[in-house]
Amino acid sequence: MPLPFPTNPSLLTLPVYQPGRPIQEVARELGLSPDGILKMASNENTLGPSPLAVKAMRKALGATHLYPDGNAFYLKAKLAAKLGLTPGHLIFGNGSNEILELIGHTLLWEKDAEVVASQYCFAVYPIVAALFGVRLVLVPAKNYAHDLDAMLAAITPETRVVFVANPNNPTGTAASAEAISRFVAAVPERVLIALDEAYIEFLDDAQDLLPELLEGRRPNLILMRTFSKIYGLAGLRVGYGMGHPDFIAELEKTRQPFNVNALAQAAALAALDDHRHVERTRRLTVSGRAFFKRAFRRLGLESIESHANFVLVRVGDGQRVFQELQKLGIIIRPMASYQLPEFVRISIGRAAENKRCLDALQKILGR
Ligand SMILES: *Cc1c(COP(=O)(O)O)cnc(C)c1O
Question: Are 308 and 281 in contact (CB under 8 A)?
């Protein structure tokens, strides 16, 4: 129905974000029991939340009649100490996705502003660009990865933000620490480098840009990380940005006063201490990546070398494979919305889950 008021014209072409399908939804649709359904679609932690986080949330439940600490004092203090930063370098968001939006509020207010991202970039970057009505310049990928030199060359006087995810989702590709450092140094200071480190904990050769932030050398750099992936707290929605305190102070003005809820803060605080859970997750991911890599090679399937907790594999008709796997109770992610219709993305699970998924895939592909 035509609405009786004018809506934001960007919404006409704004793609609706296609999340991984929830287990309950698939169970309802297929008449299956949710217990038998395996979700490998959203790069969640198959080990579940940190047990320490669960305990902390139980304790915090009795105080949920109170608003949370809008400034996340304890969480900021603890994380700052862990990272060697100050609390003023940190901003918390309702997931790190919210930080992406706050960047839009802060920097994408001019009509002719532009943002630069890579061809196979995280779906939220184009959404942010569209939401703020600015031009998105997508730079062709090189071997499915960010072409950092071409991205540099795509920067114009109108560019306000360049988005880089390292490792990248959905390709799992990563630039070397050295390449990232060179890129960061080469971007003009008037352009914000939004470096999305959602999967940094899974990367062996990780760039460490925190010293530059601490020394105040890069006022145009923000790093973003999340509790959704290695910490296993995706359902709570908590992530953070790290940047120059003057820029963080501007971002802070644009967020909702209580954007990170009380349970999320309690859980994240406890999860920071759960080194065992983090290490188990990392080990599981590394062995799962190796398992899929070997298996895909054996089956003659092209896959992209992954530095994250998922794998991207070329299966022919990705949508069909997604649907057939779903019938077998396995939810993965088709990639047509990322212009990769021949690929599917599979989040790494436990050994038995990976095997179940691979066996099903082999059956569907007749290999
Ligand atoms: C999962 C993911 C995030 C994290 O999102 P949250 O909002 O923190 O759950 C951010 N960036 C990328 C590239 C991701 O894949």
Answer: no
In order of their start, the domains of the chain are 9-48+275-365 (3.90.1150.10), 52-271 (3.40.640.10)
- The residues lining ligand 1, judged by C-beta closer than 6 Å to any ligand atom, are 43, 95-97, 122, 165, 169, 196, 198, 226, 228-229, 234, 239
Which residues have CB under 8 Å from 208's CB, separation 6+?
Answer: 177
- The pTM of the full predicted model, rounded to 2 decimals, is 0.96
Q: Whose CA is nearest to atom 10 of ligand 1?
A: 198
Mind listing the pLDDT tens digit for each residue in 105-122? Answer: 999 999 999 999 999 999
Local confidence band at 2 (pLDDT 50, 70, 90 cut-offs): confident
Q: Burial level of 9, CB count in 10 A (0-12/13-18/19+)?
A: exposed
The three-class DSSP label of residue 197 is coil
Give me the long-range contacts of 6-10 (CB less than 8 A, separation at least 24).
8/131, 8/133, 9/133, 10/130, 10/131, 10/132, 10/133
* Residues linked to residue 135 through DSSP beta bridges, in sequence order: 114
pLDDT digits (tens, 9 = 90+) for 342-357: 999 999 999 999 999 9
Angle between helices 245-254 and 96-107 (to 10 degrees): 90
Q: How many CB atoms lie within 10 A of CB 31?
A: 6
What angle do helix axes 262-271 and 73-83 make, rounded to 10 degrees? 20
Dist. CA 81 → ligand 1 center (Å)? 23
User: How many beta carbons lie within 10 A of that of residue 342, not counting itself?
Assistant: 15
